[in-house]
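haha ok so turns out i had the wrong file open the whole time. this is the CORRECT one, sorry everyone. sequence first:
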Amino acid sequence: MKINLENFKSYTVNSVVILFSVILSFYIEGERELNEKSIYKNKLITDLINTINEDINQIDYIRSQVSETVKNYNSILNDIDSKNKNLSRADVMEKIVGDNIGISFFPQEGIFNQLISTGSFELIEKNELKSLLLEIYNHQNNRNYATSYQLDLFQIKFNERTYNNFRINSEYNYQDGEIYGKPVVKSYIFNENYYYSNEFYGLLAEGKVNGNNYLRLIDNIKENYIQSRIYAEYEINN
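then structure:
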């Protein structure tokens, strides 16, 4: 059987051209899809930067409220130690009713979850950004929720004991305050025995410790947010 070399060469060349064209088309399509995914990834990271900014603002507000509560606890403790020489009874009641250590930070997780669910997270080139985001939205989030739950339980206990023992009647101004509004003392009966009791003193000391621990946690979260924002801006600009 004779093989026509010219036909064979032509067939081989055509096959190579077709194969190359197919490979090239796959490559071009792959690059196009990768570029689209990269653009979408950068869009999500831009959205993430915006939510980080909003969360930082929320942390700053939460911090100011918890810091004020810890300050009030400390003021009352000092007043008890001084045998009620620092604060009037009305001041004490105002601080008790105004205290809310149960105010919690609720991070916005939607954009991070989108990064994970769409596979965009794996396209992030800066490993430091990926590590920090996992730290924030997994480990620190879990710590935040657990600590917030404990603070809520403490606030319930604090309100129950103080409102009962000082027979506090308060009204709530929903328009005052950025998130939770502000309670206002309407009437009370000052219970001096309870004021100087070990139970009340311990309650205030416990609240101060809880508040300081939470301040440390949200400060760490904020620090990671700020660093993540730096990495995120680098990711989309380079």
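The CA atoms of residues 102 and 156 lie 8 Å apart.
again sry for the mixup
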